[in-house]
């Protein structure tokens, strides 16, 4: 099963043999680390290539020219590490992996060092960082209303949002519009028909109702 999904991932992404080798090595490191700290649900690891790798990599099809990304709440490295592994070698490519939990940042730093990735790991609150990037992204971090708050400084510096969301994406956007003005487009996830990829731009906080 893993071999079939690995081949499907390579066909979808056009990843090189070297990139595939790095992604496989990352998968093994993640599985080892997951035995001592809860980075991802252990039941999801057998579906690594679709649920984690392809779920992350599909973002590149929505922003093929983007070179700089900030992954808020980077966690186990999805989507940030997968994006960095696929962007490695492109001129100007850089990914910021931002997480508030030290142990996750230590894991991410080990991955960045092991694969010599064009990435910076930041242990801190997402909304307090001075990062300028093309795309701000996140997966499974917070409902959209709070996520826009975390990402607001990045929007102010010119970033566009590209967020991986689940089946509640539409209702999250409705709720977020009570606090924010923004433009949003939804596209179906290619890794899970229940999921959505939400593109967000022109974000500003709504004036409170009096």
UniProtKB/TrEMBL annotation:
Classification via InterPro entries: rRNA_ssu_MeTfrase_G, SAM-dependent_MTases_sf
EC number(s) on file: 2.1.1.170
S-adenosyl-L-methionine keyword on record: yes
Reaction(s) catalysed by this chain's protein: guanosine(527) in 16S rRNA + S-adenosyl-L-methionine = N(7)-methylguanosine(527) in 16S rRNA + S-adenosyl-L-homocysteine
Binding site for S-adenosyl-L-methionine: 73, 78, 126-127, 139
Molecular functions per Gene Ontology: methyltransferase activity
Pfam families associated with the record: GidB
Primary localization: cytoplasm
Region of interest called Disordered, as start-end residue ranges on this chain: 190-210
HAMAP family with a match to the protein in the record: 16SrRNA_methyltr_G
Family note: Belongs to the methyltransferase superfamily. RNA methyltransferase RsmG family.
Protein name: Ribosomal RNA small subunit methyltransferase G
Name of encoding gene: rsmG
